[in-house]
Amino acid sequence: PLNLKDNSAYFDLPELVAAGVDSLKVEGRIKGANYVHTVIDSWRKQIDTFVQTGNLIEDDSSLYKVFNRNFTNKFLQGDMTKNMFTDNPRDHSFDHANEKSNAISVVQIYDAQQELAAEKNDIDTLVKKKIEFLDISKRELRFEFGGQLNQPLTVTLTINDKHDNTLAEQSALQPLRFEVQSQMPMQTADISVVDIAAIDKRFKTFSNANFEIKNMDYSNLGNNLSIPFKELARIKKQVAFLLNEGKDVLAPVEQPKLVNHPKADNKTTLSILISDIKDVHLCDLTGGDVYFKLPESFRTDNDKYINVFLEHPQLIPWFPAVLIGKDFEEAVRLLEVVKPKLIISNNTGVAFKAVQMGIDWIAGPLLNTTNSYALLTLQEDLNAKGAFISNEINKPQMRNIKRPNNFKMMYSIYHPILMMTSRQCFFQQTVGCKKTRIDASCMLSCKKETTVTNVKGISFAIDKQKGGYPSIYNHEQFLNMDIVSDFADKFDEFMIDLTDIGSGDKEKLDKAVLLAHFQDLINGQTQAVEHLNSLVKVQTRQQYVEGLNS
Fold it and tell me: What separation in angstroms does the CA of 153 have from each of 146, 183, 239, 365, 386?
């Protein structure tokens, strides 16, 4: 599957087919039905034509008749220029209509706009005609439950279509009516009674996405009577069959219950992440693991980072999420030469290569692992030895996570909050970089940082490291000290990010002092919380409170 945000990307359809792509998701948030219809119809025609003839349809005029900000496939081609930014987020279709008609005078512009408005209206009419009989409103359900001593329990259900029809149409629409009976008569109850509460508990679940229960009538149901609850379940199943248009309802898949295995030992350690060789001295201040963060891009055949690990074997390689082409090959070469015992990888391709070489790996935080089954998949299918748990889940959600056997669980308690990473240059629009386009040298040699402030006075750090992509970071630092006391028994390791990446022009904190206070926090010294709060003044742990919506 491939997620495409640029509707003109079908110009690269041959490459997508050659790459083995078998499904596409075309995004269009908060768009109308005419937009959805036109874009998907254009894709469908392009795909069908290419499969049948090997050629593409050159006419893309239909896309210019619905909302658009103009089209480009330069992003796919790697041609990164400042023109890729859209200064005006409004609909470009009106401008294109003027350009197409060479409209200059007021009269010409008026005629072009009128023609476009008529074409837009034709699309609206076509879409409305195609969907006029589609209905997503819920159908109304009415239940009548009846039964006396030595008589079967009878369930009568009435289904009404809920439409805004005329009185004549409403009179012509006859409600559907079904009756289901128990296969045995009702008897005097000795222990369990089939009463209103018992029936309501089982049948109220029919109020769902498709139906709305308007009434449940129990007036003809006798008192103190019973049938086996197994029979009541059979009746419910038959009702479900009728409501599902005569098709058996598939039972929900029951997930196997997972065992929560204990930690290998009772220790909880503190690890740190660095990205500058100048910070290697921090290794002498901690007994925990020290990870060295690698960039997204490497200079081909450059042994700079290989030598870092050969000269400092205590450092554990930390691989980024995005590694493409030659950069991926250089990352694999680093594994082949260094042969580390363990790596942290946010890239499953690197992890796969590591496993082939007999190198242990731990899933990094950018893989955003949120549940127990994901942990089990990482262990059983990808041979991971551990994983960082997502910072997006809250305390109750964290409590439900179960550890696989002999598997490490880790959590980053202090790090900058990455908001967006892009191959486009953010500095052309902020500090005014003079280069008109991004080239290979930008990726490897450019190192810039700045801060932008929005109208609300909130500042965001824009960061570009050598070998890294331009990134925007939140003004708040993620700091979650509560989890240390809440789940010390669940986690093998808590990590702090001591890189300078994402700090913008904010004052750099003393890393040795930070490390000491975090170590005190792990060791249970209560004054550490006060010290860290005084140092990290702009902080948040909001996701630990809010969590992910189910």
Answer: 6, 8, 13, 56, 55
Beta bridge partners of 348: none
Q: Look at the chain and report how many structural domains it folds into.
A: 3
Dump strand ranges (E) for 110-234. Answer: 139-147, 152-160, 176-185, 187-188, 211-221, 225-226
Q: Is residue 359 assigned to a domain? A: yes
Q: Which range of residues forms the domain containing residue 411?
A: 269-546
At 2 the pLDDT is 43
Q: Please check whether residues 275 and 337 belong to one and the same domain.
A: yes
Structure-token match 């029919």, residue found: 206
Listed ranges 106-120, 413-427, 436-450; the one with the highest mean pLDDT:
106-120
Per-residue model confidence as pLDDT tens digits over 172-194: 557 899 999 999 999 998 888 88
| pLDDT tens, residue by residue, 467-503 | 888 889 998 999 999 999 999 999 999 999 999 888 7
Residue 257 domain-assigned? Answer: no
- Mark whether 431 and 539 lie in a shared domain: yes
Q: Which of 72, 101, 131 is the last residue before a domain boundary? A: 131
Beta strands in 171-250 (DSSP E): 176-185, 187-188, 211-221, 225-226
